[in-house]
């Protein structure tokens, strides 16, 4: 019976750098994979950074794996590293996962995420409408209420 490996994953848009580590700390595999190839690691514990686009990767992984989303600012060994590469970050995540030393990030339930998306969308629409309204008023107000584009 083979042991379950620990996986550190440094995610990017469309691909991830993966480090697969045994329980004794030896690196079993390191490679760059596309998001569609992540299913091969099903059933393994995975540590991934909470980046700006974590949600797609997290939701994909969470269906098949035990995912730990890591707070990068609280994981000092990665945040303050003098040499930062995708390989090193993935290895460090695997090491910290194996040693149970990760600072986890909170992942809200799907319903909360959807509500936050609605609020973000509304905020963007209001900002866009406000900018457009201000730019149109620069044409209308100086011309006594008549619209005269230059």
From TrEMBL:
Superkingdom of origin: Archaea
InterPro entries found in the cross-reference section: Transp_IS110-like_N (IPR002525), Transpos_IS110 (IPR047650)
Residue intervals of the Transposase IS110-like N-terminal domain: 7-130
PANTHER family for this protein: TRANSPOSASE FOR INSERTION SEQUENCE ELEMENT IS1111A
Name of the molecule in the record: Transposase
Species: Natrinema soli
Native organism taxonomy: Archaea, Methanobacteriati, Methanobacteriota, Stenosarchaea group, Halobacteria
